[in-house]
Amino acid sequence: MRIGIGWDSHRLTAQRPLLLGGIQVPAPFGEDGHSDGDVLLHAIIDALLGAAALGDIGTHFPPSDQRWKDACSSELLTAVCRLINAEGLSVHSIDSTIILQRPRLAPHIEQIRSSLAQLLHIDLSYVSVKAKTAEGLGPVGEGLSIEAQAVVLLHEETPDIWL
Ligand code: MG
Question: What's the structural domain count of the chain?
Answer without folding.
Answer: 1
